[in-house]
Specification:
heterodimer, A: 373 residues, alpha+beta, 8-stranded mixed sheet, two-stranded antiparallel ribbon, 16% strand, globular, B: 391 residues, Butyryl-Coa Dehydrogenase, subunit A, domain 1, Butyryl-CoA Dehydrogenase, subunit A, domain 2, Butyryl-CoA Dehydrogenase, subunit A, domain 3, 3 domains, 4-stranded mixed sheet, 4-stranded antiparallel sheet, 12 helices, 46% helix, binds flavin-adenine dinucleotide
Chain lengths: 373, 391
């Protein structure tokens, strides 16, 4: 049993925190939020220069292989900074999918450009009305002489507007599960750009008989591998969210010390003190579940891995709901404005609950595991 | 970061499991499992003597006083395994409460006399802190001790005294000075329960058990040599006691045992001709509490790890106390719900209504105490607000 972090892990965390503290203040971020693109390619490049886009790439492929714990720490800092750039989408989720599933030649083709920040890739998996498992996947890939023809729709794909490459999951006509690398500018793709509630950029994607070469397919029947990629993605999203929780909780405590009503700081009222004590308890419980999710990323037993990570997402989702709502409440009218951290964090927490399977969906996955014991 | 126990810790756990398998008497194990406290006054000392014979009578004590020298992690493993094996809890008042105070502040004579007797279960200890007018605000206590030669004369009333009906000794907080700040006039006395002038009266609890007592002191003469440390410094010792032995404050093992029992009940009890576990609503409630317990187990290990890195045990223990007790109460609630209308049965003379009846309902009633004693959960939230959040 050991809850310490080694020097490399600590350094990664420090590097990320230092960079965001100087380059990603509230006002700097606010400008990006209101810009047409909604993000900064400059910041992205700098993240690449700092090596942070290569943390989930093996050393043999030129990465720094920081492992799940390194990913957890960087994701936490990224969440704390409310980063708008596609860190999780490209540097963790899509990168991990490539590392885990793609051939050596495909890795050599894509990983260096992803690591440097020159290119951006996203996993296009979620579909409206489908759960996080693969049973209801509607996107189809049909084999033909040159390769495949891809048709279907993907829903609220985070960071798709800035991506060069989509990794699209689809049911292949032989019944296997396929993952396809599709250039964002390929013919037959319609992209409906969206702004999500937490101010990030996303898109609904329609694929209409998109022509793909045979070597656009990553791996063969990738169901198990993709499940593992998604579990690790959820674990990283949990860590990102823990960073948001850290920010919103501290902001609320600070605010309650500074704000005076009835001639005294509102933090001196016991009703609010007990509320904040409960927020802290849920925060610490969320941290423990983040550790659990991180550790289980490398669990070979897929069922146990999914159950623990789903359990973590459910509990952290509940903490996000409670802490977020109470933070707004304790800020009074100021909690309703766009001017403070609190509302921005609040919306990011809401997004967490809705992304990659809702809180209840994951609780149900955990429950089914328990019933099957 | 590594959440799993290492090889050494796992080997230790195996050793504890083997010991419990071989040495915990079946009749005691069974009574603990059934929640049958009818022979608790002999079961607890019997088990303590077995532990002591094995050198495990006081897991947290330093070796020089007869302890094990175990790490905090080992103590956690021991506590957890004991609970999972249905071993009776050690009598905390001696081993975990008065003993650490004696080791730190007691005279050599007190240490030499009392500590071996605690280890060997020769003395049954109880705690006399609370009074009718002094619960959460303990420092306002009024039981008086006045010096008369080489004795104190004690007058007053203590309440909520757990298992004092079996006690040989009581450690008491008494008022020796009323002139200044309440905290500054309290002394810590060890009182022989056979002393004339002490009367013990049962207070019946909501579950029908006789677990607590009122204790009256009427001109009870206590030798000055039975005062621990300095006169009027008792509050310091009481606070020291509170900060001690908190690795098990979350009751992880007991929670895991009751959760295991709940799942077992849900698998065997039927509702609408199906095992209850197949009911999605009920199964989700179990899933929820299981996740909360998992998180608390990791949170507990984090606190233990921090302590091992020489961070003094701090106010984080309040988080463990709040969550651990809330989770236990939730589990016992679900056990009663699992029984449905059968949970109504309080007594069933001449007929055995089944193993979990009426144990589950009695336990639910009894466990309401968890959030009240040991520093109520509201007091714990005050501690978090003041000590951690610094509000
Ligand atoms: C959308 C919106 C519209 C509004 N419209 C109007 C309007 O048209 N006209 C107008 O005059 N005002 C309006 N208000 C202001 C509204 O009445 C105030 O927001 C409200 O009175 C709370 O005051 P506050 O925001 O300063 O919060 P604060 O008083 O600073 O309270 C902050 C937090 O502390 C808590 N708190 C404060 N005192 C205590 C206490 N003694 N014990 C325990 N907890 C305490 C509060 O419950 C809250 O959670 C509006 C507010 C909003 C959000
Ligand atoms: C089964 C059982 C066994 C016990 N065993 C022992 C024993 O062996 N020896 C012993 O000395 N004592 C024992 N106690 C006593 C126990 O320590 C007290 O019950 C406890 O300290 C609370 O005191 P009280 O009951 O007087 O409640 P009160 O202090 O009157 O509290 C009543 C309510 O008010 C709340 N409250 C009080 N102060 C505050 C505050 N500042 N802020 C917010 N809320 C507050 C409390 O949380 C509680 O909900 C036992 C109690 C029980 C129930």
């Amino acid at each position: 049993m050991d809850f310490s972090f080694n020097d490399e892990q600590q350094m990664l965390l420090d590097t990320t925190q230092r960079f965001l503290a100087s380059e990603y203040g509230f006002d700097q971020r606010r400008k990006l939020l209101e810009s047409d693109e909604g993000w900064s390619r400059g910041v992205w490049k700098q993240l690449g220069e700092l090596g942070l886009l290569a943390i989930d790439i093996p050393e043999a492929d030129g990465g720094i292989a920081a492992g799940p714990v390194g990913v957890m720490l960087v994701a936490q800092a990224v969440g704390h900074g409310l980063l708008l750039e596609p860190f999780l989408s490209s540097a963790i989720v899509a990168t991990r999918a490539i590392v885990q599933i793609a051939s050596d030649a495909q890795c050599a083709r894509w990983l260096p450009a992803l690591a440097s920040g020159e290119r951006i890739a996203v996993l296009a998996h979620d579909e409206a009305g489908a759960g996080i498992d693969f049973t209801r996947l509607g996107t189809r890939a049909t084999r033909d002489a040159q390769g495949f023809s891809l048709s279907g729709s993907k829903s609220v794909v985070y960071h798709a507007p800035m991506a060069d490459l989509y990794l699209v999951s689809a049911r292949v006509d032989d019944g296997s599960l396929g993952l396809f690398a599709v250039a964002a500018d390929a013919a037959g793709i319609t992209r409906h750009a969206l702004r999500t509630v937490d101010g990030q950029r996303a898109a609904d994607l329609d694929f209409d008989k998109v022509r793909l070469d045979a070597d656009a397919r990553l791996g063969a029947d990738v169901g198990d591998a993709l499940a593992s990629v998604i579990d690790c993605a959820i674990a990283a999203l949990c860590a990102e969210t823990f960073g948001v929780l850290d920010r919103i909780l501290k902001a609320t405590i600070e605010y309650s010390r500074a704000r005076k009503q009835f001639g005294t700081p509102i933090g001196s009222f016991q009703a609010l003190q007990h509320r904040m004590a409960d927020m802290l308890i849920q925060f610490e419980q969320a941290r423990s579940m983040m550790y659990l999710a991180t550790e289980r990323c490398s669990d070979a037993d897929a069922g146990a891995r999914r159950a623990s990570i789903s359990g973590a997402k459910a509990l952290i989702g509940q903490a996000a709901r409670f802490i977020g709502q109470q933070a707004v409440q304790l800020h009074g009218g100021m909690g309703m404005t766009d001017e403070l951290d609190v509302s921005h964090c609040f919306k990011r927490l809401l997004a967490f609950e809705l992304r990659m399977g809702t809180t209840d969906e994951h609780l149900e996955i955990y429950r089914r595991g328990l019933q099957a014991e | 970061m590594d959440l799993a126990f290492d090889a050494e810790e796992q080997a230790f756990r195996d050793e504890v499991r083997a010991f419990l398998r071989d040495k915990l008497p079946d009749d005691i194990r069974r009574r603990v499992h059934l929640g049958d406290g009818s022979t608790i006054d002999t079961d607890i000392p019997r088990w303590q003597k077995i532990l002591n014979a094995h050198g495990w009578g006081a897991p947290a004590w330093p070796v020089e006083f007869g302890g094990t020298g175990w790490s905090k992690t080992q103590q956690f493993i021991f506590d957890t395994e004991c609970a999972l094996a249905d071993a009776p809890p050690q009598l905390a008042f001696g081993v975990k409460m008065v003993a650490p105070v004696l080791m730190r502040f007691g005279s050599p004579a007190q240490q030499q006399h009392f500590l071996p007797r605690i280890l060997a279960a020769d003395d049954w200890w109880c705690q006399g802190y609370s009074e009718p007018g002094s619960g959460s605000d303990l420092a306002s206590l009024k039981t008086r001790a006045e010096l008369d030669g080489d004795h104190y004369v004690v007058n007053g009333q203590k309440v909520w005294n757990t298992l004092g009906q079996f006690a040989d000794w009581i450690f008491c907080l008494v008022r020796t000075d009323s002139s200044g700040k309440p905290q500054r006039g309290i002394s810590f006395l060890l009182i022989d329960m056979k002393t004339p002038g002490i009367s013990v009266r049962p207070t019946r609890l909501l579950d029908g058990t006789h677990e607590v007592n009122e204790i009256w002191f009427d001109n009870v003469r206590v030798p000055v040599g039975n005062r621990v440390g300095d006169e009027n410094a008792g509050w310091t010792y009481a606070k020291y006691l509170l900060g001690h032995e908190r690795t098990n404050i979350a009751g992880i093992g007991a929670n895991q045992r009751e959760l295991r029992r709940l799942k077992q009940m849900a698998r065997t009890l039927e509702r609408n001709e199906r095992p209850l576990i197949e009911d999605a609503v009920f199964a989700t409630r179990i899933a929820q509490v299981e996740l909360e317990l998992k998180a608390l187990e990791i949170t507990t290990l984090r606190v233990i790890f921090a302590e091992a890195q020489n961070h003094a045990p701090g106010p984080e223990a309040s988080i463990l106390k709040i969550r651990g007790t809330e989770i236990m109460q939730r589990i016992t609630e679900l056990q009663v719900e699992a029984l449905g209308a059968r949970g109504l049965i309080a007594e069933s003379p001449g007929h055995d209504p089944g193993e979990e009846i009426p144990r589950a309902t009695e336990t639910y009633l009894n466990q309401r105490k968890l959030t009240i004693f040991g520093g109520s959960n509201e007091i714990q939230r005050n501690i978090i607000a003041q000590m951690i959040l610094q509000l």
